[in-house]
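sanity check this chain:
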Amino acid sequence: MKFVDMVNIMVVSGNGGNGCVSFQRTGRRTSFLKKPNGSNGGDGGDVWLLADPNMNTLHYFYSNRVFRAGHGQCGRGRGCTGKKGKDVIVKVPWGTRVSYQKTDKLLGDMGSHQKCLKVATGGRHGLGNGHFKYSLRCRKELCNTHGAVGVTQHLLLESLLIANVGLLGLPNSGKSSFIRIVSSAKPKVADYPFTTLVPHLGVVQINSYDRFVIADIPGIIKGASNGAGLGIRFLKHLEHCQILLHFIDIAPVDNSDPLENIVTIKHELSNYNEHLICKPCWLVFNKIDLLEKYVAEKRIEYIISALKWKGRYYSISSKHNINVLFLCNSIMQFINHQTSNQEYISSYA
């Protein structure tokens, strides 16, 4: 299945039904028109978006781009109002961001603030001559109104992966190897850059009760905010994560400086969205098996002191499964603690 996280769709609401012109006769054998009894038409159908937690991508919209609601029925005589047009409910993945295609104005954030969103309102019904029965002019003339035309909207849907933990870092820093070890996800792993072209989700099961979802996004390089590499297109999937893991290759093959690599990633994040910098972030020094133990420790201490890092940091080896379980347990404890604090605050709000 092709990974689709951004798509354009068109939604069209239904037209309102026209009002009816009808008159009540006074008797069986006479055609004398007396009282207007034409009824109103029905409103046009609306188009709604519904957040569905069972959907992961926007792949359905790759071949389905247009959604139309039903038209309202015209009014009838004897006070019979026209039926409302049928609404259309379009299911989208939980966490989908909806905006207008032309203006990029945000229309809603599905799942985070609302589960159902009206994106196109149906046309208003037309009025029958029964509505004007107290008007002296309309008692003798054919007075009614037409229903309003439905609304057409061109929308941009952006699906945001809902994960507790987000992995970021330069290409070949070991993110895909890590997610393969700790979950059943099987992203491609190779010894060349950009083996991960699309995000991957994995579920890490700590025990029978505790688990968390982890998201692996393609690697970021210098100049990503200007379109270099795969750009910053997939950074949006980190916005809903509770914690970020910044993977650092402690022994890069290209002999680059790990300290400079960390600064590069932080610079690209700040260019994209300053709120990502404020999220809890842990440094994960990977591939410690490639160096002697004391060399790796000395290099990590130098980086931490140079950055004046006050947050948590870990040293692991995804290939040889060194300190991986310890890191996963620490993540689970952090998530449980953060969740309990949120519940405590909401109970007193």
Observations:
- DSSP finds five helices and 16 strands in the chain.
- The radius of gyration is 30 Å.
- The chain has two domains: 6-159, 165-347.
- Residues 324-347 form the longest helix (24 residues).
